[in-house]
Amino acid sequence: MKPFDELKRLEPGLEYLGIRNIKKAHWNLCSPKLYEQATRRGEGVMSHLGPLVIVRPPQSPISTGRAPNDKFIVRDPETENIINWGDVNIAFDPEKFDYVFERLKAYMQDRELFIQDVYAGADPKYRLAVRVITEYAWQSLFARNLLIRIRDRSQIPHFTPEFTVIAMPKFLANPKLDGINSETFILVNFSQKLVLIGGTYYGGEIKKSVFTALNYLLSQ
Predict the structure, then answer these.
(1) If you average pLDDT over residues 79-105, what whole number do you get?
(2) Please, what is the angle between helix 31-40 and helix 137-146, to 10°?
């Protein structure tokens, strides 16, 4: 049996990712609470009639637009003969993915995380259970609005993620060290059912990553 302090370091519900030493985890907050968190934390301001306007920190070097050249797919025995590799589907080494993930987990320690359990696709037969983990409340609100939320909250404790997306905008890659093009990255690992996003405030990468997973899984 593991020592109590070791068990405590692992965040309940995130054990399968090895995420530990989290300052606080906000699980499946409703939209009003996410609005409140986002404004209280200075992530954005409420505009006329209610829309939340996100404010990028001044002097921030982090990207706010699409980054098609910074998206990579892990090439391994599972994906080798399924994906059409090339300039669009750019291959990424599995060991490099694991290395980036370990550094990303270190970055998440002692931080607040926002977690949304949602579905991609309306048909229960084909929908994908997705867990979205972010460092900003507005990202969690974005995922909650974009994907299908669980209306019956009594079902949330029974949710089992089939795919996980982790988006940490302020975590910047090291291009030379990580073998990528810039500080921005979107790394898709179909074998681990995991997407890592960093170095970008563009919420659309969460959406595009989920759609990429659907395109890969449903076509089979």
Answers:
(1) 96
(2) 150
Closest listed residue to residue 163, CA positions, set 220, 206, 100, 101:
206
CA gap 74, 57 in Å, rounded: 32
Span 160-170, mean pLDDT?
96
Between CA 117 and CA 91, with CA 147 as vertex, the angle to 5 degrees is: 85
Contact at 8 Å (CB) between 25 and 115?
yes
Of the candidate CATH numbers 3.40.449.10, 3.40.50.2300, 3.40.50.1820, 3.20.20.190, the domain formed by 4-27+64-218 belongs to 3.40.449.10
pLDDT tens-digit map of 21-76: 999 999 999 999 999 999 999 999 999 998 999 887 776 767 777 877 899 999 99
